[in-house]
Amino acid sequence: AQRVTQPEKLLSVFKGAPVELKCNYSYSGSPELFWYVQYSRQRLQLLLRHISRESIKGFTADLNKGETSFHLKKPFAQEEDSAMYYCALRWVQKLVFGTGTRLLVSP
Amino acid sequence: DADVTQTPRNRITKTGKRIMLECSQTKGHDRMYWYRQDPGLGLRLIYYSFDVKDINKGEISDGYSVSRQAQAKFSLSLESAIPNQTALYFCATSDYQGGYTFGSGTRLTVV
């Protein structure tokens, strides 16, 4: 069955430190993966989709089919990056979400 | 103007009451979804609709029903609310390329 796993509930780093939010998926077909961000109880916003291979707000994510991973990375975290991050897999026109990781960036 | 609007933003209701959460969109998307968000559980799909005549159950549809009144409107009902339905509810729409737009959410508390 299709599943998205985000093993860390909370990731706490200092400003300027590198960040990696982990995401693993299980899916038998060709995956379409996304990262969504939710700031302080606001609506979810699309951060990245793997097919576009672009960098948003300094974040990047690379699909690794061998490891079935789509980890989100940023070389230097900023305080404004503090938020909930959700990895999601698109399956039959629906999004399947992971349980989310809260990123806390301290000054 | 918000392109996916949910009403109400917050609601407190009593156990056993019927309640409707409404969602309207100006995106022109055919596909609409209802998710609930719970701490530690992420977002789980309740119902989805790919057009006005299409309604499908998601992974946690028990205790919920929906109505797709028009392309732009998709309502979620709790026929008899119970405390474990306390959650943040999100409506979303998507285009054929899979771009999702979420509403601001409805925070529902069942006491």
From the spread of the alpha carbons, the general shape of chain A counts as globular
* Run of helices and strands of chain B: EEEEEEEEEEE
Number of helices of chain A: 0
Question: Would you identify the regions of chain A where 5 or more consecutive residues have pLDDT less than 50?
Answer: none
Q: Which structural class best describes the helix and strand composition of chain B?
A: mainly beta
Q: Averaging pLDDT over every residue of chain B, what do you get? A: 94
Q: Average pLDDT across residues of chain A? A: 92
Strand content of chain B: over 45%
List its salient traits:
heterodimer, A: 107 residues, mainly beta, six-stranded mixed sheet, 46% strand, B: 111 residues, seven-stranded mixed sheet, four-stranded antiparallel sheet, 0% helix, 59% strand, globular
Write structural notes for this entry.
The complex is a heterodimer of chains A (107) and B (111). With 107 residues, chain A is mainly beta. Helices cover 0% and strands 46% of the residues of chain A. Chain A is built from no helices and eleven strands. In chain A, strands 2, 5, 6, 9, 10 and 11 form a six-stranded mixed sheet that branches. In chain A, strands 3-8-7 form a three-stranded antiparallel sheet, with no helix packed on it. In chain A, strands 1-4 form a two-stranded antiparallel ribbon. Chain A is globular and about 40 Å long. The model of chain A has no long low-confidence stretch (mean pLDDT 92). Chain B is mainly beta and 111 residues long. The radius of gyration of chain B is 13 Å and the shape is globular. In chain B, a hairpin with a 3-residue loop joins strand 4 (31-38) and strand 5. In chain B, strands 2, 4, 5, 6, 9, 10 and 11 form a seven-stranded mixed sheet that branches. The chains are: A mainly beta (107), B mainly beta (111). Chains A and B meet through strand 6 and strand 10 of A and strand 4, strand 5 and strand 9 of B.
